[in-house]
Amino acid sequence: MKYAVLGAGNMGGALIRGMISAGIARADDIAISSSTPSSSKKSALSLGVQSCASNTEAVAGANMIFLCVKPAQALGVVSSLAGELDGKLLVSIVAGIRSEDLHRSTLGSARILRAMPNTAVRIRKGVTAIAPHRSSFIEDFKLVRQVFSSVGSVLEVTEESLDIVTAVSGSGPAFALLMLESLAQGGIDGGLDSDAATIFAAGAMAAAAALVTETGEAPSVLRKQITSPSGTTAAGLGVLESSNFPSIVREAVRAARDRSVELSKTL
Fold first, then answer.
1. Domain 170-265 belongs to what topology?
2. Rounded to the nearest 5°, which phi and psi values hold at 113?
3. Which end of the chain is more exposed for a tag (fewer CB within 10 A), N or C?
4. How would CATH label the architecture of 3-159?
5. What percent of the chain has pLDDT over 90?
6. In this structure, how many other beta carbons lie within 10 angstroms of the beta carbon of residue 178?
7. pTM of the full predicted structure?
8. Is residue 89 within 8 Å of 103, Cβ to Cβ?
9. Which residues contact 139 (CB under 8 A, 6 or more apart)?
10. Domain residue spans in the chain?
11. Which residues, 6 or more positions from 11, have their beta carbon under 8 angstroms from its beta carbon?
């Protein structure tokens, strides 16, 4: 397989690093391009892959193309490549851009799948949702699943679910990192040095995630197990609950989902 990655940003780079690290692709099997040639060259140098002067050049020798550009650019990029995508597999990781719109932009020439990975694909611990389009084949799905399984876990979803998946899984790590920052700052406020506070905060977040994924128990059940009546944890949770923390988080998820829906309607 030969791969093209259109867009030299964080997610495209994370996916490339994961694929190479997992051994699913060699660096010389991957070509990248960007709207800014200097950015493409810089990214290619750091990743060890081929830099292309244009999207057309990147796509020319590829079987599978990953669309990793910004939402506002996606349909324009695909339209400009319609003649070059004939019979090829286009995998979009762009939030909010519907498969049918992508397919229409290729003039029906390409096979389309949408995937929503999160940034942890960089360290092969990502979670990716894949939604096939009617233009794709089961073999295409298997190939895309193989790629993303090499950098984490994969779930098949309907395209209608991708907006909420984007909010929870795609944006969720940023929400969690804000919580981590705040937790660490609380440690610093209490007298810990910055490095120690960050290590303890990151360990707490990792512990919470590991408990859920490895025990299979519900977060609410695990939280109750950790919380002793009238103890330190109960005191802290009382502040979060009285400050409406759970509702604030749910509202953040709704806002991210709504923005994904909005993108599909405005572009």
1. ProC C-terminal domain-like fold (1.10.3730)
2. -135, 150
3. N
4. 3-Layer(aba) Sandwich (3.40)
5. 81
6. 11
7. 0.88
8. no
9. none
10. 3-159, 170-265
11. 68, 93, 117, 119, 121
